Amino acid sequence: MSGASQIYHYDRTQRGFHWLMAALILVALGIGIYAAWQAPGTSPRRELLDIHKSVGLTVLLLLPLRLVYRLIAGEPAYRAPPSRSAHLAAKVAHWSLYVLMLLLPVSGYVYSAAGGYGLPLFGLFSFPRLVPVDKALSQAGYGAHYWIAWAVGIVLALHVLAVAWHAWIRRDEVMGRMWPRRVAGG
């Protein structure tokens, strides 16, 4: 491709997946943390957890679509490619986020399904229970969900710090690759 027709940013669909899933994950984390402070079995905890599960299961449903589209569309070029180590670190961080986006809702599903709790999707329908009701399995799912949520929080914080570093310290194009375009041809 010639420089004039080279694309240096993610397309609208990839940006849409990125920002939608970022918002859903932040909402799910926030609701999950708030609900954890509420007394078990009470209102609003039950309702909050139903929303939390719905948002988490939505992330789980969107993830394969996002990954397939990412594999088809690929990654845009850089005007000034990062060092090999920086590019490798970014790849590891992004694929770690994808793995965590899978493991977090799956562990939540196991916790809820094995615990005999409902698996609603915004009141539209309930997901089928694919695991037996089993207290030990539910507790394992809870433990995994708890620690994976911490891992997601840490990796997201590092992601945001890396973006800030690129935007404000390095002043390179990394942030603009995922940000909505403001300049034609950029």
From TrEMBL:
The keyword Hydrolase does not apply. InterPro entries: Cyt_b561_bac/Ni-Hgenase, Cytochrome_b561_oxidase, Di-haem_cyt_TM. It comes from the Bacteria. Its main location: membrane. One of its GO terms (molecular function) is metal ion binding. One of its GO terms (cellular component) is plasma membrane. Keywords: Cell membrane, Electron transport, Heme, Iron, Membrane, Metal-binding, Transmembrane, Transmembrane helix, Transport. One of its GO terms (biological process) is respiratory electron transport chain. This is Cytochrome b. It comes from Methylobacterium nonmethylotrophicum.
